[in-house]
Amino acid sequence: MATAKRLPRLGISKIALRYLSDKIVRSIIKDNTVSKQSLSDYVWKNLDKWSDKTALVCVETKRSYSYLDVYKKSNKIANFLTNSKDLRKGDVVATILPNVPEYAMIVLGAIQAGLKITPLNPDYTREEITHCLKLSKPKLIFTLTDLWPNIYNVVQNVPIVLMNHRKEVMDIPAGAVKLSEVFDNTCPFKNRISDWNDVIYLPYSSGTTGLFKCIELTNGNLVSTIHHISVPEFRIQTLTDGNNQDVFPAILPMHHIFGIHTVLENLTLGCKAITIPKFNKETFIDVLENEKLTHCYLAPPLMQLLVNEPRIKPECLTRMRTIAVGAAPLGVNDVQRLHEKTKGNANILQGYGLTEAAGGICWQTPYISGGVKIGGCGMIYPTMELKIESESGL
Description:
Elements: H1 14-17, E1 20-21, E2 24-26, H2 39-43, E3 54-58, E4 64-66, H3 67-82, E5 92-96, H4 102-112, E6 116-120, H5 126-136, E7 140-144, H6 148-155, E8 160-163, E9 177-178, H7 179-184, E10 199-201, E11 204-205, E12 213-214, E13 217-218, H8 219-229, E14 247-250, H9 257-268, E15 272-275, H10 281-290, E16 295-298, H11 300-308, H12 314-317, E17 322-325, H13 332-341, E18 347-354, E19 359-363, E20 379-380, E21 385-387
Parallel strand pairs: 3-15, 5-6, 5-7, 7-8, 8-9, 14-15, 16-17, 17-18
Antiparallel strand pairs: 1-2, 2-21, 3-4, 10-13, 11-12, 18-19, 19-20
Helix pairs in contact: 3-4, 5-6, 8-9, 11-13
């Protein structure tokens, strides 16, 4: 159960406050049971319904994977990891990767192998990487050949799996393994089941002061938050069926809880993700113009780009049903201007969450009366409780 002490600069809707008792805000949505599955099993529970649909496409290289491809390659990664003599259940593996399609495969494969995974920002300095590695102590790192020259001095004592991105690099460091070789492995799978309360994910949070903190999230934390945002009262996607498939840009960094959470949530629902490895204004505009996006998740600076960039025409935005904005508050004027630019066709929803709570705690929703309020943080997810305190604790 997630709790948060304070909601800075965000308002709780009046309808939510009706359920306030002893400073505890409870969801008005009826609690629903979450199946106690591993995260990988939860994501793949409906694979047979859309196995042939496109799951992940890289906007830079056009690498494309169907749902069945992603499932099989995740299994290959799990096989490789479970057969590694240096890895035991509960050990940590790290990613130092941008938003490439293979990111989700590595996360799901590592969790399926009974390991913990820790995501590092590929733009971290050597000092920042060193600090994070001291906290999480990974025994294996997945990264790009492009990034290796910048990080090898820091990670030279940790085994490496390297993947090519823009170009094929044949000459890799001694002892490193190519991700392409991992995908080709035929090792027998040794099943490792993660318990509901096992820690499986170690993201980093800036906290309130000082250096990054390493956060421990359990299998139950992640499955629960993905499940609760997918209930009918909050789900922004339509169900994948026949020729219908929702499409969204995976532009939020996957090393951030908001970014990976949205990718895993949408994979669970059969949506198509357009992965954007590194933000570039021209690339983003191209995606808006040429992809039939149904929804997107943005931080406020990207939302302001939608409003202020003259090359982003209203017709690029009016196809979207929902624009979800989190990570920081939005100004009333920005929301109103975006409403005008989308001609009122898109729901503009705000939410509140934090790394320590495995993502979102509450989100605006058009499916509940009073569920959308400019400047508000929305309605609390089912089964969650949120305590509001003043800085003085009174």
